[in-house]
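[Automated response] Your request has been received and processed.

Submitted sequence:
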Amino acid sequence: MRRHVYPFFISPQMPKRRPVDQIKALFLFTFILVFFLSLAEARTMERLLPSRTYNLLPQVLHEKIVLILKAPPLSMSVVSAYDGKIETDYTECEGEFHGILFWKKRWKERIKYYITIVRDWTFPERSCLSIYSVTEQRPNENYSWAFKESGLTKNKVSHILEVIDSRIKG
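Generated structure:
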């Protein structure tokens, strides 16, 4: 008489799962999924705000950055500049393509930059600079501007930060 061999995950005496066990398993899976997604979100938020530290007082750095933003490589108009906060006017640029085949059309985008300068807590003679951007888009002039999360603005923010960095250090 030969005994039947079952795989390790099936047994003849395997009990049926109760609905309570299935609910517990689903709850545990959901909790683990939400936990890992929140970790990924925290890491992306850290990457959204590029920053630099300079060996200048905040007031001096503030004045230099306003002059650098108005200078020719960037040529941005500054809307407000006070208390370590600089806000630029919107700069319009070409946006993404939307549509398919011959209905494809390039939307319009505009980007506004917020630059914050704060004093370093550990070394008061140093200043920390961070840049945040807001992007809006629309298909054409007949539509109102709508908020857009864009990965392309990260490149533009890093370009602005490089220009500021080269002008201050150079």
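Summary generated for your ticket: Residues 42-47 have pLDDT under 50 and may be disordered. Strands lie at 51-54, 78-82, 85-88, 91-98, 105-119, 127-138, 146-148.
If you did not submit this request, please reply to this message.
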